[in-house]
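Note to self: the last two entries modelled the partners one at a time, which told us nothing about the interface. This time every component goes in together.
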Amino acid sequence: MMKGNVVVGQSGGPTSVINSSLAGVFQAAKNLGANKIYGMVHGIKGLLDDNLVDLGEKLKSNMDVELLKRTPSSFLGSCRYKLKEGDKDQYAKILEILNKHDIKYFFYIGGNDSMDTIKQLAAYGSEVGSDIKFMGVPKTIDNDLAVTDHTPGFGSAAKYIGSTLKEVIRDALVYDTKNITVVEIMGRNAGWLTAAAALAKGPDCEGVDMIFVPEVTFDIDKFVEKTAKIQETKNNIVIAVSEGIKTADGKYVCEASQANAFVDSFGHKALNGTARFLCDTLAAKLGCKTRPVEFSTLQRCGAHLASATDISEAFLAGGKAVEAADKGESGKVVIFNRVSSDPYLMIPDIYDVNAIANVEKTVPKEWIVDDNTNISDEFVKYAKPLIQGELPAYMVDGLPTHIKL
Amino acid sequence: MMKGNVVVGQSGGPTSVINSSLAGVFQAAKNLGANKIYGMVHGIKGLLDDNLVDLGEKLKSNMDVELLKRTPSSFLGSCRYKLKEGDKDQYAKILEILNKHDIKYFFYIGGNDSMDTIKQLAAYGSEVGSDIKFMGVPKTIDNDLAVTDHTPGFGSAAKYIGSTLKEVIRDALVYDTKNITVVEIMGRNAGWLTAAAALAKGPDCEGVDMIFVPEVTFDIDKFVEKTAKIQETKNNIVIAVSEGIKTADGKYVCEASQANAFVDSFGHKALNGTARFLCDTLAAKLGCKTRPVEFSTLQRCGAHLASATDISEAFLAGGKAVEAADKGESGKVVIFNRVSSDPYLMIPDIYDVNAIANVEKTVPKEWIVDDNTNISDEFVKYAKPLIQGELPAYMVDGLPTHIKL
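The predicted structure of the combined assembly is written out below.
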């Protein structure tokens, strides 16, 4: 049984199921007798400002918890805030705030940067002899965390991409004149989500014609040439590209079209406009109609199309972290081990955060086929179990209902 | 009872429910004893090439018809082909093909241009004493047809926009830093779909901050000024704009960013890039992060989020056209008369095509409020009944299933 209070935070980019992990932490901590369960408002940044909410007051019924599972984005708010490695003053300040609230368990739901936060705090905690347990709950649509078979959030985004592409392809094939649709999918360095475009193909769908992931160099001339070749026998072409594709000089394709783009305080340029740039290029070179489609934030917040498998795994991951912390674990992250794909059997476990933080897992090169223009069936076999099942939104007055702070 | 054969075609931009109208025509014609029910492949263009399919062979079971109702885009393919007014050779050719196949009933599902096709053919048919009945079935997400209360297709697109915006807003509000999301919605001259952004607001959703429709002139400086004003008290701003907004000089806003855009054979430039242009402008002037979101074709093909009300009305419209033609009507279009909004009661009727073809209905000026930056509750009351209910996709192996030719 848990002694003392619990705090949980959400960090990094939103997903459709990050709130399911929050629900999982909340429910498990409640079941294990935690006293207060606090939420950090805007992640570690909020904690540093002592901005906490009492989750027991926000989630009063099972219905609230069910709504939370169906609500996209981060219920508690998020942040993009990286602790400075070795900044002991900041570590001490965090521990002081935690101690002030008699918090004995710290859960952080997020991706790579969030796992780094757990790594630093767990190391400092054990250095100063704190009894606070620090646990990471993985979350990222990008599916780029090491060690784990996959990450919560990926399955729902992949299901969104597969489902919506099937609809976009039906739409794109409607005319008997030449046209090209280029669909832009998220993923700066890892092509897992773009690879999910391969899911659309089936007995009732032609699938996409080409898929370009950021793991391999993108050649604009070859791209135009290959598209022209396909156009010789097909009027309507649909192509999936990652927002993160780069040319041989190491530049993002979208940079070509972004002279005036806003650069944030970290020096990051927003990565979009790839599809538009490629459409303009194809229109100019091939003289046909083109249409860019950006899935944009829709692919990470389309909770109405979330995968039930993903939602329950996200929930489970939250619960597993609590259970492990209750048993005395710290500095660990929940991971998924796949026992088999068909039938699908996945067993959650915990793993040393040091092996996971700051390591990026990309799509295996051998799954990128057809002269780097397609994704193999191995990927489809890997991803299919993760998109199974639906947990429909509660529709009220014609629209999905959510819960907010 | 119907004598002879039937032909049905689909034309113009796809919608989520244009296939429901096709299903409605097919089912009603079958019930009324039609002999063969043909489909034009790629609309009137296909008919001119004598490219017909026997729908009885393509839709063999009730399950096929149910799948058709859940399949977005035009099952038969579409075209953007306008008959040349007064081209009697072409009229004669069409009648010759119809007569060759013993076709006595001609149904065309589409928007303004398609109604013009019905108008011309019905007039020519009666001029030459043909006994073929020509009937129009309305379809357009743009909701811009005259006389009718609304058009099939609009409700589902509005439901998609309201639902997805609720998710985008949850996503956009996640950080405590300043950012602006500009969402671009279809509609060249009529702002009905952009107005649907007003549906997102509710007890569980903050709604969008501003809505800009093409019915009123767009002023870029005032837009920046108003956004800056909102930003004084709010970190996260979400704005909905129509792709068709124009500045005082009559130019589309997106044209400013489209020096190299492809111009089609009709001289039409693709209208997109409005959100991106406005985001770049806001980022430069207000120095904050911005994100353009284009709903693009997703809003017209997102059948997995279709409105059940819209699907059944689209089906009903197809059936009504057949029933009227069977009673001897020709040169008419199905329209919807709203008896009441709450409770919602809608009665279909038929109307002279001459009053509908080539007339465009826009959003009433009195519904555009707050210095042209918002949409009134009258619109919400009008649109709410049209987005009610769901007809979930048949999910197979994690994805929606469709039917294709």
